[in-house]
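Hey,
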Amino acid sequence: MKKDVVIIGAGPAGIFTALEMLRKGSKKSILIVEKGRSVENRRCPKNVTGKCMNCKPFCHITTGFSGAGAFSDGKLSLSAEVGGDLPLLIGEETAQETINYTDKIYLEFGADEHVEGVNVSEEVKEIRKRTIQAGLKLVDCPIRHMGTEKAQNIYLSIERYLLEHGVEILFEYECKTLIMGEGVCKGVEIAKWDGSDSQEIFADDIVVATGRRGAEWLEKICEIYGVEHVPSTVDIGVRVEVRNEVMETVNKVLYESKLIGYPKPFKNKVRTFCQNPGGFVSQENYDNNLAVVNGHSYKDLKTENTNVSILCSHNFSYPFNQPIAYAQKIGELTNMLGAGHILVQRFGDILDGKRTWDKELSRSNVRPTLKDAVAGDITAAMPYRTMINIINFMQSVDYVLPGFASAETLLYSPELKFYSNRIKMDTDFNTNIRGLHCLGDSSGWTRGLMMASVMGVLMGRKLV
């Protein structure tokens, strides 16, 4: 088979590459190869069973058209300050202009016109003052919240648009390897997830946009074919859950508080991420049966709790330079302690040096929204450096939001964000291998829906 452009991965980066090519009038033939299923055929059985069924061959929450975006909280960060380091490659002005452009596309396909976090009232000033006093930084970032259930409808509309305008999508196929020749990427070898129906597809341009789930695969591809890259960051942390009353001020005024700190004694970067007012803590499954925690936030369905991720950034260079493998080992050890489930522990029990028991959770003001999480001791698996950073950061946040670091606050583990080693590319997203481009979270340059979509838009323009 011969195509002009082959895109590996139907996450936001891959989707918007094809979408922008169509919007710019391109007549090139485009093929998207996606390991999972179409949006309308993605089904998580947990809504019926009440517990994670560890679906095979892949998790429907993380895999399929739109990637994890369709089943996540569906938040679009509208500031170039948030979403990774892409502005360092293309310039902050270009990044912000493209965010504004991409946001309009989301609106065309049905995103909510309301934008959270644009309030400049005295309440915001008071939050910022307390943040400064706590030694933290508050990042201003308007948020367009699509919602977990609404995002699926938006991406379904985009999926149908692509198909109706001639983009071919092969679902339930995965890329096995690249086809190389004389330093040029000439195509890809793909097959069904069970290894059947192996095909070679040739193209002038190969776009790899496999998302966080595909970061490990891309890392191996880089080693095999000499794609130039540098070690990147891996984020290791917890998902914190508190009563809505604790977060009420921030939820109402900012919707999402993006806080950054460098707590003593280690001074690693620690940040909040993916805040979900009235949301649900959720489980995602990666390859090798790795269960990780995440958060969902629906537009209409709400709980009494707010959850937010606290992530500690780790960088490795010499002699160890495998951040993804490091984080996976932490996740595997935590899963082992939870008998394959997510672990949950009360903050007060961590400070007291004891595990949490189910009976203690049943008596708490904060009831877990992840019903099949196992009460235990996350500190038995979390590295000392990471745990101390998280504890000290939470106590700083408690000054801004009294009650955040209360004894009953719940911490779920493991929360891991995998980013590939950062691929070396020019501003046109060309790697050192001619014909090969890498986008989105798997490239190591973006983090999140909007910035990955932005990278896709810019790639689409280059390919036209």
